[in-house]
């Protein structure tokens, strides 16, 4: 009287990416619904209930979600607590900002020189652009780093190459010396601090503390209103986030995911299995740096301005806090953390939250938000290490264990989906 | 029987303490060898040197037909050359399933890009199931390794070693913390493995070593004190003095 129970194929045989990560479909569906909602409410394409600045804020939030994803992969999955990933984000922003500023200034300079009797030469135009851009730091010629700024394709390549190469060189030096744990975190902080301090200098070639500005004006699209540009960037950011999610879901599933989680848990043991741990760390570090750079290149045109303070050490620490609050070691956790915390942050610091009058003291959130954030971080670390993403576990249906063998004689322990008991029936 | 691994004249000092002192050992292929010795005799340090974890101050460690020196190689390179190691404490990846643990250890290309595009083929599946069967964990493949009992973790680690298909297996106290039945199973596993490859077992427990029935090397203060069958070394006066007589 053996009853045959038709079980689904074991998990390892369902090798499709989606089948292994059902969260991908959920994520893409929610992201798509969010995009349609925003498009429907935006000024350019819908009812106008959402202001253009709000659309930009949401678009920027999507970029922050993307860099948080990268942080989650490098920290939550591979165990490298990098406190320097916002440097890569900023470098991506600088790379695209250079083209935006160059091309827009070029249009202005050409217009103003067109009124002259003689047509301007290429050198005159170039000098004009340099004076316009670098006048603020007392310069009038292009530093070497601007060599490719005239070309959008080259500068787009820089968005990927500059963060990628920096991560490759830094990672190679750090990982081959077997710098790990808190020492590596400190080293990454030093990297972002050094970069930030360098950029603060007027002779760094990137306009010192003025940074690059006017990035919201897309050259050649002057006729298009900011409302249209905002929604276009919003969609581009959403697309980048979706692709980034798919990319990282693919990387952290399968054997690659297995190896990098193993490195996080016991890297010495992984070495004795024959894996060159340093190469894997370098791969993850560089890949996430490149994605961070792309996220930055989408973020700063929406923000309109980038300056060296964006690369300050604190920015990368915030990034780690978002991922910790969202729940590291799961991709959607990072997205939830970045979205919730950064939106709450702009609500509190933007004066959106009402002051709380305690009678003897009025809590002004613009001052107290950081305290609230810090306390939340400590509480999440201590009491809810799974973070906000852990809440999904409570909602999601609990998966039945993959049992092999019979269900045992105990009828009461049997769950409905497990079928009739085998043997010992009475 | 030619020597697969040859350790000659190796010395290593930690903060003035001579852990290994002019040690020479040769392991053939196939061979089962037990290394015994009191605490601090240098058994684990010997393994650390062979697997590249510790660099010796002097001496040579050569490997294989072409007598490659292992001294300049990284741990991962040595593992890829075909030396597998099992630690004293079972070290499996507890957050991952038994299947994932075995799949990671399977002999395959180890580069990041090879691993990124790797898919489990039918022969990989068959190999994983064959190993699981050998270590008695067939029914536990989908389980998280952290849920296994101590003995099962030890076997899983031995299984991972077998999956690596090493030419030389270094096994550190495989029977520690096992029940008598589990010990018997472990002895069988090691003996079977040693039919086709070299297996070096570091062990404290004389009874376990006796059951392995192989050549025994006794280490004391970082060098070889005696070598031969278990009865031969057990009769050796020096061995009785420093180790067995206690």
Would you give an account of this structure?
The complex is a heterodimer of chains A (426) and B (246). Chain A has a domain of 283 residues. In chain A, the strands form 2 sheets. In chain A, strands 1-2 form a two-stranded antiparallel sheet. A two-stranded antiparallel ribbon of chain A has the order 3-4. The N terminus of chain A is likely disordered. Chain A has 15 helices and 4 strands. With 426 residues, chain A is mainly α. Chain A starts with 16 loop residues before the first helix and ends in a 31-residue tail after the last helix. With 246 residues, chain B is α/β, with parallel strands linked by helices. Chain B has one domain: P-loop containing nucleotide triphosphate hydrolases (Rossmann fold, 3-Layer(aba) Sandwich). Chain B has 10 helices and 10 strands. In chain B, α3 runs parallel beside α6. The two termini of chain B are 35 Å apart. The model of chain B has no long low-confidence stretch (mean pLDDT 89).
